[in-house]
Specification:
Strand content: 5-15%
Strand order of the largest sheet: 2-1-3-5-4
Number of domains: 2
CATH class of the largest domain: Mainly Alpha
Largest sheet: 5 strands, antiparallel
Radius of gyration: 20 Å
Distance between the termini: 50 Å
CATH architecture of the largest domain: Orthogonal Bundle
Length: 322
């Protein structure tokens, strides 16, 4: 049985609206897998990829599944049921760690999140829905598959991987007033995903959300070091950063981008060089705080070492001189 400490006051405030909530749930994930309730729950939420997601609410200090017709405030993500995925049981801990690094080390705006435990002892990732406002209303939100006009009918079953990050940048520039602030946030997130091995940062993992009268780039979500579980590419989009860029000699030689490629991408999407350099400089080494978070995470020691090895390899690629 995995033991979790009580949620801190900060987590209670940000993740659970200040309510006292237990990290231990009263239902079994293994039991859900065999029940019709799981099928019904999954069908009520948009699912991309292989990981099952369940809508949840907070009720009497406990986390429970949302009932049919009940508006959920949270999403539960247990380990995927696909047993072909290596080290699948550690995906919740991986996602929680990566989201914490993004938020606390790099200041990236992320969905509020935490960990909880099912009655059968499984670690489960929980995140608060940022499209549900404190008054219970739902904010308008569009992922970039929709923004970029990608769908299964026109682009095939793998449509969410079709495109480039330049396509997302074009959508931000088109739909976000005062887009320069959100463009820097987007560029920072692309950098983070590359350095921290997130090879599944596809079109549906970036979204716009309405705030008042305007659309803004939504907080980051679904961040994890996918290299711990599957063999993947540097990027989650087939076209990479851009199809119009001239790759650096290092990129052409090794198949992996370096800093000069990201500098070129920053210029392409409208980020001034001095601002781009400030963001790029943060990824030239691994912060000590990252090491601390990795070593205190719920990943087993072997995966902690692998996590850091992946990041060190990415940093080494990044700092190569073209």
């Amino acid at each position: 049985m995995i033991e979790l400490p009580a949620y801190s006051p900060r987590v209670l405030k940000t993740l659970f609206f200040g309510k006292q909530v237990s990290p231990y749930m009263d239902f079994s994930i293994s039991g859900l897998k065999k029940s019709g309730e799981a099928v019904a729950a999954v069908e009520r939420i948009s699912v991309s990829g292989v990981q099952e997601k369940f809508p949840a609410v907070i009720d009497g200090g406990k986390i429970r599944l949302a009932m049919e017709g009940e508006r959920s405030t949270h999403i539960l993500k247990p380990a995927p049921w696909d047993e072909t995925i290596a080290t699948r049981r550690h995906i919740p801990a991986n996602e929680h760690l990566t989201m914490q690094i993004a938020s606390h080390i790099y200041g990236i705006q992320t969905a509020h999140n935490g960990l909880c435990v099912s009655s059968d002892g499984q670690l489960v990732y929980i995140t608060r829905r940022f499209d549900i406002l404190p008054n219970g209303t739902k904010a308008e939100m569009e992922d970039f598959a929709s923004v970029c006009g990608r769908n299964e009918q026109t682009d095939g079953v793998h449509f969410k991987y079709s495109g480039t990050y330049e396509d997302i940048a074009a959508g931000i520039r088109r739909y976000v007033p005062g887009w320069m602030v959100d463009m820097e946030r987007f560029f920072d997130l692309v950098l983070f995903n590359y350095i921290y091995g997130n090879g599944d940062d596809h079109l549906k993992n970036f979204s716009l959300i309405r705030q008042g009268e305007d659309y803004r780039l939504a907080p980051a979500y679904d961040l994890l070091n996918t290299s711990l579980h599957v063999n993947g590419d540097d990027f989650g989009l087939d076209g990479g950063l851009s199809l119009s860029m001239v790759r650096s000699d290092e990129y052409e030689r090794t198949g992996h981008p370096c800093r000069s490629d990201f500098e070129q991408f920053a210029s392409l999407i409208g980020i001034v060089p001095v601002r781009a350099s400030k963001l790029l400089d943060r990824y030239m080494s691994i912060p000590k705080e990252t090491l601390s978070l990795v070593y205190s995470s719920y990943l087993p020691e072997k995966l902690q070492r692998l996590y850091l090895r992946v990041v060190k390899e990415r940093v080494a690629r990044f700092i190569r001189i073209d």
